[in-house]
Amino acid sequence: MIWDATFQLVLLGSLLIGATSGTLGAFAVLRRRSLLGDALAHAALPGVALAFLWTQSKALPILLLGATISGVVGVLIIEAIVNYTRIKADAALGIVLSVFFGGGIVLLTHIQQSEVGNQSGLDKFLFGQAASIVRADLYVMCVVSALVMVAVFLCYKEFKVLIFDAEFLAAQGFSPRVVDLLLMGLIVLTVMVGLQAVGVILIAAMLITPAAAARFWTDRLHVMVLASGILGALCGALGVGLSALAPRIPTGPVMVLVATAAFLVSALIAPRRGVLARWARIRANALRENGQHFLRAYLALQARGKREIALLDLASELQLPLYRVRRLATRLVRDGRVSLQNGACSLTELGHKEADFVVKSHQLWEYYLVYRSILEEDHVDRSADEVEHILTPEIIEQLESILAQEGIDVVGDIHKTHSGYRRTGEDG
Amino acid sequence: MDEFWGPFWIVLTGALAGASCGLLGAYLVLRKMSLLGDALSHAVLPGIVIAFLLSGSRDVIPMFIGAAICGVIATVLIETFHRRWRVQEDSSIGITFTALFALGVVLITAFAGQVDLDQECVLYGEIAYTPWDRLFWGEWDLGPRPVWILGTVFALNLALVLVFYKEFLIASFDAEMALSVGVSAALVHYVLMGAVSVTTVAAFESVGAILVVAMLIVPGASAYLWSDRLKVILTLSALMGVVSAIAGYFLAGVWNSSIAGAMVVVMGALFALSLIFAPHYGLLGRFVRQIRLSLRVARDHVLLKLLRERESQRVSALSWGDLVDTAARWVSGIAIRLLIWQGLITRKNGHFSLGEQGVIHATRLLRNHRLWESYLNQLGLPPDHVHDPADALEHFTDDHLREEIRAALPNIATDPQGKRIPDG
Amino acid sequence: MLHAVDESVTPIHIHDMTVAYHKKPVLWDVDLAVPEGKLVGVVGPNGAGKSTMIKAIMDLVPKASGWVHIYGKPYSRMRQVIGYVPQRESVDWDFPINALDVVLMGRYGHIGWVRRPDKIDRELAEEALEKVGMTDFGHRQINQLSGGQQQRVFLARALAQDAQIYLMDEPFAGVDAATERAIIDILMDLRARKKTMLVVHHDLHTVNQYFDWLVLINMRIVAAGETKDVFTDDNLNKTYGGRLTVLSEAAQAVAHHQRGL
Questions:
Q1: What is the distance between the alpha carbons of residues B307 and B344, in angstroms, rounded to a whole number?
Q2: Half-sphere exposure of B276 (CA within 13 A, CB side)
Q3: Which of A378, A383, A392 sits opposite C28 (nearest CB)?
Q4: Which of A21, A26, A34 shows the shortest CA–CA distance to A221?
Q5: Domains plus CATH for chain A?
Q6: Is A392 on the interface with C (CB under 8 A)?
Q7: By CA distance, what is A361's nearest residue in C?
Q8: pLDDT (tens digit, 9 = 90+) per residue, A7-54?
Q9: Which of the residue ranges A388-402, C100-114, C119-133 would you say has the lowest mean pLDDT?
Q10: Inter-chain contact C18–A383, Cβ cutoff 8 Å?
């Protein structure tokens, strides 16, 4: 029964709203205009009410025109307050947002308590009621969405530069003010299109949340814009679908909750910037570091003339419990750096190579610090210990050439390091 | 409810809410934390609703606990998104408060039968029911419950602001300095946010979750336009809250609308008035100062023009067309009329010339101009670069500054173009 | 080599201190013992960690390692002996407060929680204002003061703290010649009264003239000691020389590594 024509209409409408606000939200968020969108939406409320009072009509284009005018007036007032008084932007935003909303509430309650307004249904603009979308509304939405999409497509590169470096945009002969105004105008249109289905209080979330979610998936703007648009559309459709199951619940909050869920999931599982991926990388780094400590400890023991190096010796050198050293060894064997025979441990060729590299970078760094800073030798160790796992081959090369100029040649002799093993608390 | 006490309780409730919010709001505005206040007031909604659902009553204590938990969750989420997940700060705030508010609204509508709460209450409160919402002590009717709640909160806020005035001041002005004298700025921050949350929850039933934002920010910002003294700002801010409550109540009667909404509209009007009429920081004052400034500049230019003509001894009078500055015809015209009215220049047969006082005035200006030219030249500016800056500086040079420049230029009788620096 | 430091007479003793912002080290392994009664300049290029060092001394930024002792005790117990002049940009000058009230803040550490400043505190504040030649401006809103005057108000506030040690972050930045003269006179006067001062400074021309002790810093201490010994071309080369990029590259690498990027 939910697949009837009305529902399809509503679904299509929310898809459009989600896609438009998602697409533009990417720019709004990156340009740090997300909360301005919020103020704009709240400021639209008195416009809706005034348009109704004036024309006694409930036609969407008329109400949205009123909303647009009062929203734009609100934004202009914010700009004026910030430019001409000592009140800061955050307070100016809050003032316009709340006072316009208060004015809207006064008008709405006034309409509700008068005879004409009883059935006005204007309160759908507060929390959104997608079910109230009719065919004519859908046409309006289509036109506005198409307009926004085309504008984004045409001005993509200008927006991109505006976000990244407005001064450069000016140097290229574009007026950042004009581009900014255009972007702001598109944000206004987007917010207005969504008002009916999502409501003035929460429409800002449809700008912010899908865009912030998309940001986790990519570092490229065009991918982000696309992803944000698709996410927005999905959230819109899913929100409508869910709220169709419980018709009493307004659509806006449901859409917002769906979008929030998408944001949280993205934050967790996104491949590079996601929380899990970062956590895994930190863990991998720690593992590598511990492995390198193991290798260095092996070299140190060897240098002290020890022949048969058992895990127990390594444990006492590293000052770690045996079970952790055993786990480390197992992992290093798996990675082909260490071989274990009858409890005695030896390095493979690969293991030797890595150990030498670590020792060398450790020592280079020590030399460098001592040379640079006339620092006491007993102090350099902790930093070197931290840095030895991290130095890239390029930095190593630089260090070598600097020290070579001073006639210092570092070969990476384990005898010359006097180091401990930094704790990281992670192992295999 | 009788005709006096009904309105009285409503106005008192509104006034207490306005004053409580006003006191804290001034700090929110000064500390640039307005948006955090906004976010917090939205974000506590699910906490309040869940408390309603669990306790099944309108008891204040569960409400505060629920709201407090939600407030903490919101703060933690914003911090986590921003600092750990590296989402932009404004986006973090936006995501968090819309999500929590949406959750609150969904809960309210989903459990509509079980909660004595509806969307309207969330939007604009139920201050009109104040007189019927009584607090009982056993058999005793102690008066309206919201008055007691908001009264307590107001007393607490007032005590906080009075007792910790010094600590709040230093932590708001200079957090590092505060730390270095042993006042933890973080502690002050959390105490303030705690107070804002408590006040928001206390005001929630009366004015709703969104209008309370206006009560927090608008009076504080208005007061900030009137004064440079924190004590005055705090007092004014609280007073504006009270005035808005009284005026809002009566306006709501006239408009047949929500009382809380009308209070906010009055606050908005007070802000607009402050924005325009505040003596030093208002737009009107600013505009008048600018007009006076450009008039003064235009007047000085007219005087100088006449004096220069006289000095070159071509003519001693100029026609209107020669005298008016074509780039700023309007201002220049007013300036000329003003000069005639002051008797500094005279008009004969459509031509203008300097009066006696006018000569003195103009000579002083010319002296300023040429002294500046010489001074700038001495600083290393080439002679053909000094005219424009001197043109700007000549108007703002008082006797004291003029003599200081004179002292810095011993033995100089002419400006870089070789024109004589007149005595004056 | 280990310095033998008699801590009870050493105003500031920093040992093996590393400070990191967002896990990126900005100061590495700082060791420093500032002698008493000296006017000490802290000099180095932008981003060298000068302000960070001052802030780390006062626990305003967390230390990744190491410690600071003030006359042999941790800072938290010695707050009262330190006066602080922050960078001028660090506060909101639109804040509704007048010059005298700002100076009065210098007394807050002595007054303690909750209690109000009394008459004596006010007198001390006015005295401090007088010392910096700002008596007539006490009731001006701070935004109506020139840059130099604002700096003097900050200095007066530190004077009102009546401290043994003064930490000053670029007190000469953006001030007029008269103010610079006035400030340096006050610093000399403080030195005559055996106060210790650590002053972040960026104008190399005046180093010799102003400071009797010098700390050259670029992410780590390059040199520290009597100005005449330390202020050498060689040391300046080490401090300002471009080759320190390796250090910042390594710092970047450490930060990325620890944040899992």
A1: 12
A2: 5
A3: A383
A4: A26
A5: 5-270 (1.10.3470.10), 274-428 (1.10.10.10)
A6: yes
A7: C250
A8: 888 899 999 999 999 999 999 999 988 888 999 999 999 999 999 999
A9: A388-402
A10: yes
Question: What residues contact residue C153 under an 8 Å CB cut-off, 6+ apart?
Answer: C99, C102, C103, C129, C132, C134, C137, C142, C145
Q: Do C105 and B227 touch (CB under 8 A)?
A: no
C92, part of any domain? yes
Mean pLDDT check: name the lowest of A316-330, B350-364, C131-145. B350-364
For residue B200, the Cα-to-chain-centroid distance in whole angstroms is 22
Torsion, Cα of A411, A417, A421, A422 (10° steps): -80
> Please, is A105 exposed, middle or buried when counting C-beta atoms within 10 Å of its C-beta (0-12, 13-18, 19+)?
buried
Q: Extract the tokens encoding A148.
A: 């926004």
ipTM above 0.95, yes or no: no
Greater confidence, B411 or A108?
A: A108
Collapse the DSSP code of C193 into the 3-class scheme (helix H, G, I; strand E, B; otherwise coil) and give the result: coil
pLDDT of residue B399: 77
Instruction: Evaluate whether the domain defined by B5-281 bears CATH number 1.10.3470.10.
Output: yes
In degrees and rounded to multiples of 5, residue C226 shows phi and psi of: -55, 140
Instruction: Quote the pLDDT of residue B344.
Output: 84
Q: What is the pLDDT of residue B185?
A: 86
Quote the Cα angle for A183-A188-A193, to 5°. Answer: 125
Residue of C nearest to B162 (CA): C114
CATH 1.10.3470.10 intervals, chain B? 5-281
- State the smallest CA–CA distance between residue A4 and chain B in angstroms: 25
CB-CB under 8 Å, B166 with C96: no
Set of chain B residues whose Cβ sits within 8 Å of the Cβ of A88: 29, 32
Interface residue of C23, C95, C111 to substitute, partner B, most B CBs within 10 Å: C95
Q: For position A408, what pLDDT does the model report?
A: 64
Rounded average pLDDT over B181-210: 87
Looking at residue A146, its pLDDT comes to 93
- d(CA A17, CA A239) in angstroms, rounded, equals 12
Distance CA A197, CA A194 (A): 6
- Give the CA distances from residue C135 to residues C104, C168, C182, in Å, rounded to whole numbers and listed in that order: 13, 22, 14
Contacts of A91 in chain B (CB under 8 A): 28-29, 32, 34, 217, 220-221
How many structural domains comprise chain C?
A: 1
Residues C79, B174: C-beta atoms closer than 8 Å = no
Q: What is the CATH number of the domain that holds C230?
A: 3.40.50.300
pLDDT tens for B136-164 read: 877 888 788 889 999 999 999 999 999 99
Q: According to the model, what pLDDT value does residue B273 have?
A: 95
Strands C39-43 and C12-21, how do they pair?
unpaired
Q: What is the pTM of this model?
A: 0.85
Average pLDDT for A395-409? 71
* A113-142: pLDDT as tens digits: 876 655 567 888 888 888 888 888 889 889
**Residue C57 domain-assigned (yes or no):** yes
Q: Residue B170 is nearest to which of C90, C92, C105, comparing CB atoms?
A: C105
Q: In the CATH scheme, what is the code of domain B289-408?
A: 1.10.10.10
Q: What is the mean pLDDT of residues A148-162?
A: 91
State the pLDDT confidence band at A370, using cuts at 50, 70 and 90. low
Put simply, the chain B residues between 14 and 33 with a CB less than 8 A from any chain A CB are 28-29, 32-33
Query: Among all residues of chain B, which has the CA nearest to that of C161?
Result: B181
Domain span holding position C154? 7-259
Mean pLDDT for chain C?
Answer: 86
pLDDT category, B395, cuts 50, 70, 90? Answer: confident
CATH 1.10.10.10, chain B: domain bounds: 289-408
Nearest by CB to residue B166, choosing from C82, C116, C157, is: C116
Distance, CA of C67 to CA of A375 (rounded, Å): 17
